[in-house]
Design goal:
The complex is a heterodimer of chains A (334) and B (192). With 334 residues, chain A is an alpha+beta fold. Chain A has a single domain (46-333), classed as Aminopeptidase (3-Layer(aba) Sandwich), CATH 3.40.630. Helices cover 40% and strands 21% of the residues of chain A. Chain A has a six-stranded mixed sheet with strand order 11-6-1-2-3-12, with helices on both faces. Chain A has a two-stranded antiparallel ribbon with strand order 4-5. In chain A, a hairpin with a 4-residue loop joins β8 and β9. The longest helix of chain A has 21 residues, at 154-174. Chain A starts with a helix and ends with a helix. Chain B is mainly α. Chain B has a domain at 10-88: Rna Polymerase Sigma Factor, Chain: A (Orthogonal Bundle). Chain B is 66% helix and 0% strand. Chain B is built from ten helices and no strands. Chain B has helices spanning 11-20, 26-44, 46-62, 75-87, 90-102, 112-118, 126-135, 138-148, 154-161, 165-182. In chain B, α3 crosses α4 (75-87) and α8 packs across α10 (165-182). The longest helix of chain B is centred in the N-terminal third of the chain and has 19 residues, at 26-44. Chain B starts with 10 loop residues before the first helix and ends in a 10-residue tail after the last helix. The chains are: A alpha+beta (334), B mainly alpha (192). The A-B interface holds A 1-4, 6-19, 21-23, 25-26, 28-31, 204-205, 238-239, 241, 243-244 and B 1-2, 22-23, 25-26, 29-30, 33-34, 37-38, 41-42, 45-46, 49-51, 53-54, 57-58, 61-62, 119-123, 125-126, 129-130, 144-145, 147-149, 176, 179-180, 183, 186-187, 190, 192. Chain A: This is LytR family transcriptional regulator. Chain A: Belongs to the LytR/CpsA/Psr (LCP) family. Chain A: The chain crosses the membrane at residues 40-61. Chain A: Keywords: Membrane, Transmembrane, Transmembrane helix. Chain A: Residues 112-261 form the Cell envelope-related transcriptional attenuator domain.
Chain lengths: 334, 192
Amino acid sequence: MDDLKLLRDLGAELEHQPPPTLARRRHRLFTPRRPRRSGWWAAGLVAVATAVAVAVPVVLVGNRHEPERTTAAEPVDVSGTRNVLVIGSDTREGEGNAEYGPGQARSDVGARSDTIMIVHLPADRRTATAVSVPRDSIVRIPRCGSARPRVGMINSAYDTGGVTCLRATLEQLTGLRLDHTVEVDFAGFKDMVDALGGVTVTLPRPVDDKASKLKLPAGKWLLDGEKALGYVRLRHYGDGSDIARVKRQQSVVVAMVRKAKSALGEPATLEALLKEMRESVKTDLSVESMYQLATELSGAKLDVVSVPWVPHPDDANRIVWKQPEADRLFASLR
Amino acid sequence: MITQPAVRGADAELVSASWTEPEAFAELFDRYSAMLYRYVSKRLGPEPAEDLVGETFLVAFSRRRSYDLAYADARPWLFGILTKLISRHHRKEAARYRALLRAPVDSEVESPADRVAAGVTARAVRAELAGALAALPAKDRDVLLLIAWGDLTYEEVARALGIPVGTVRSRLNRGRRKVRAALGDTNPMEEE
């Protein structure tokens, strides 16, 4: 008996043949892509928003030995399992946002949710799970205000009904109670990066992207807020896939967290950062609640996952949640 | 779909061509993506395989300038990148092997007569093999599977993992010893 032969046979038994989609990947990897749709960008601030909601406070507060801020007069209770809805929006209204959408800062457009993610904080606070919800998901949207129930892209719930509607939609879809919401937009993200003194990223290839106004040679770069924003918005870079884009965003967050950690020893940076953080997000979480969460989360590990999905049967540019996997994922968080 | 080129140059030529014409790199994908896919599918199953193969080529492409053109064959290089990517899924891999421990042997695929004729088959000792693989240290498993499932030679494995050939041999021997032990070491005299 030959053990190698037996192993080879086992391998043959376990082997799968490549699906036709593999060849399509070649196309994606090595053929320059046309813009997927006319929408000029879709910044995923997934991880960045998470960093704001979870990681950065963790770093800043979790490691501080003597919290100068004692619990406020009103006791806050954020104990137990908590789910936080994090929305990265591409709103171009308001000061500092308009310049990122020249000619598109129309007030009637409303904000568009670009990144939607549910951060699940279990009662024991050992791990936090961030579930990113692809914005192209076609889902059932319940009645929101005067709008009738309909089937549509999930981010349209936010576009038309705001955070309340998106929250209701997601609660119905996932069976999870979403206790809090955090919204971040362009300007907020930019300010945060600047408050950190920039983030360092490594570019494997030169970037010259008109849509995100980013032009840089390959190499290691310290990006200011403006450039970092361009970087997380990049679409036509690498293999041009959403997955690659999400990875770039994650790398920015890791860089931000690293920066935040090093800022611990620099009171001035720290102060600016805290201030920016509070000003650059819109949330129903009080500062006290964030402090409390952050303290509890100081030892927590963050898992980032995506809702399992498959392409929409009628439209390759849209997706639907893959069942029963998606339900199973949410059930595991209940 | 994909057109075969009339002349198949060495992989190294494609890599060097891609330095100035990035499209040339796509030919490497045509040559090896299916092979890499099959390899990952054995270790991790079909779901992550496509992503990992895609990522392997993406990483390879980004490092194409540091490719050592002295090596005509790019397979070890690609397998090396892939192996690193697979290592991030070590929990999933171990779980996959452990699942085989529990899975009932599907006897419909093969008649008992066949099994008798073949003597010991992988199917009959699947649980033992899977258990041994699950228990192997990652480094030993990488070497063993690059040889058994990736069809690389000792030298190619050494190149893929960036280790000396002697280390490949010792890891391979250690891995095989454990596999044989799991199989009950039915023929300890048989050494290759």
